[in-house]
Amino acid sequence: MSEVESGRMRVAEEVSSALAGGGAVVALESTILAHGLPPGRNRKVAASVEDAVRAAGAVPATIAVLDGRLRVGLDGADLDRVCDPDADLAKLSARDLGPALALGRDGATTIASTTLIANAAGIGVFGTGGLGGVHLPAPGQTASWDVSADLDVLGSTPVAVVCSGVKSVLDIAATIEVLETRSVPVLGYRTDTFPAFYRRESRFGVPWRVDTPASAASVVAAHRSRGPGSGVLVVNPVPAEHELDADLHDRLLAEGMARVAASDVRGGDVTPVLLEHFHTASGGASLDANEALVLDNVRVAAEIAVELAAQRPV
To answer: Is 291 a catalytic residue?
Structure first.
């Protein structure tokens, strides 16, 4: 695959050409491939996600850091490398990009770092799984200072992010409050409630609802017309047929929280422990839900990107 290189960034020619021609491009993260899915399945999902974006009429741009360069758009060999468990890719949030580039480390990008790189490359729409948020307080605490960098980056970067809300292992109410404080519009895509990743609904509403890609694109365009500022969060519930059973979900969450308390797990280690328990104790049901919602989110993101391209003045 030919590439266009500028400074520390390499953009795949297909992505660069689409952007130059005003076409629709969707950014995709690599952390879900390197750290979120088991080997073998991750490579299949990598291909399925890019296929879903193309089927909706947009160009996929999977993002990672390889060979000391920000890479925007990966070929098959690159995706093999990202999905290889022996490749030892670091998990790179926004704060980690500088060190990784300077030290020549390979890494998979999170929502925060993918958003920053997408914006730097001129990509305005990003499809992913679940947004990071405010963590629940550790046992014995009344509040948590553990807040995902995803929220601050979304609050200062004009990229539209399509996801399935935040995982129920996080503090959903506090997360929604932080989004409001950061002036991030939250759009429920065909829903009036904020989704909780594995579950289609939480007990929290969304301030705005949109029912078509065109209406979502219009909101994004209007928000951007105010000048540089925050991104837009579009929350799209997991497809109904893949929603995790409520009783199973609640049992797994309670068991996972008990395990966290018993092991004195804290900070950023809490969510991985909880999610690993979901994956193993659900018999794979949570992995199926994860894959299904990611595929649906990137489809919606691509449809919004296509509408944004069509609405752009000639």
So the answer is: no
